[in-house]
Amino acid sequence: MEALLSILSIHWAIMGGSGTTFHYRFGEFEVSVEAGELRRRGALIKLHTQPFQVLLLMLKQPGETVTREEISRVLWPDGVFVDFDHGIHSAINRLRAALGDQAARPRYIETVARRGYRFLGPVEAKGTATITNSLRAYSPPAAEQEIPSLRRSILATQADLPKTPQRVVSILFLLLQGMYLGFYVGALTNLDEIRQLFVEYGLDSRLWLIVMTTAALLIPVRAFLICGTLFRAPRMQEHYLRAWWALMIFDCGWALSPFLLLHHIQYGLAVACMAPLVYAPFAQRSLMLMGAASQPRPEVEADLGLL
């Protein structure tokens, strides 16, 4: 009887109690690449695409440091315009949550400062011949994919955005920065006319000073964003997303800039031009998150924060 129970126990460990062959086992967990499943003592644990891919990559080389560059090459193909560090942090956070792990007291996933991550503990591998090819091919069933909703944020997530080549995204982002530069330079060039307009409409003279000051201060900001995009500055996307809320306030204020042209255009046209300008800061944020990857990418939109 004990021998029979031992055989059944081994069968359950290998098959996970579900008829699925597992390629990796560690601690209380089993991983099936073919089925895209992570189980704990036979119970299925929900894990989305990117955290699952990171787990497979780390299980291939337990005890070794997996760099951020290696992870980004697996999660995003070439030509994708996303905040890599942000997405990697989020994928690791989700993976740790699924494993019941903590960054401060790691049991499975250890952070290697300024380099990447390391999988801790022994890993038993079985039937790994197809694992390498499965890293990119795996995609969870549609029912298990995360669907962004208003419960998380009223802002768009990367999963909501279309697949777009980096070149197209960069051009659109640069055009928006050029538009704002045109507003600032045009306002500074016509300060006397703007002041006269404010006097005619009985507006507070301090508003004129705000126009002049913000235009002068935001010119170098736009120059930085243009240079960062052209030269693909490291962590530029993360820096922009961190500063986005502050920039949004200024951008929404400058959405009123068509009214500075009331000496030349009708009031109705100024209102019509203002409407798309209100959306412009949100468009810039979306462009920062947009990429060409075909897989779901909800992870990129998690809270910014270092592990």
Automatic annotation (TrEMBL):
<dbReference type="InterPro" id="IPR016032">
    <property type="entry name" value="Sig_transdc_resp-reg_C-effctor"/>
</dbReference>
<protein>
    <recommendedName>
        <fullName>OmpR/PhoB-type domain-containing protein</fullName>
    </recommendedName>
</protein>
<dbReference type="Pfam" id="PF00486">
    <property type="entry name" value="Trans_reg_C"/>
</dbReference>
<keyword id="KW-1133">Transmembrane helix</keyword>
<keyword id="KW-0238">DNA-binding</keyword>
<dbReference type="GO" id="GO:0003677">
    <property type="term" value="F:DNA binding"/>
</dbReference>
<feature type="domain" description="OmpR/PhoB-type">
    <location>
        <begin position="21"/>
        <end position="121"/>
    </location>
</feature>
<dbReference type="InterPro" id="IPR036388">
    <property type="entry name" value="WH-like_DNA-bd_sf"/>
</dbReference>
<dbReference type="InterPro" id="IPR001867">
    <property type="entry name" value="OmpR/PhoB-type_DNA-bd"/>
</dbReference>
<feature type="transmembrane region" description="Helical">
    <location>
        <begin position="168"/>
        <end position="187"/>
    </location>
</feature>
<dbReference type="GO" id="GO:0006355">
    <property type="term" value="P:regulation of DNA-templated transcription"/>
</dbReference>
<dbReference type="GO" id="GO:0000160">
    <property type="term" value="P:phosphorelay signal transduction system"/>
</dbReference>
<feature type="transmembrane region" description="Helical">
    <location>
        <begin position="243"/>
        <end position="261"/>
    </location>
</feature>
<feature type="DNA-binding region" description="OmpR/PhoB-type">
    <location>
        <begin position="21"/>
        <end position="121"/>
    </location>
</feature>
<keyword id="KW-0812">Transmembrane</keyword>
<feature type="transmembrane region" description="Helical">
    <location>
        <begin position="207"/>
        <end position="231"/>
    </location>
</feature>
<keyword id="KW-0472">Membrane</keyword>
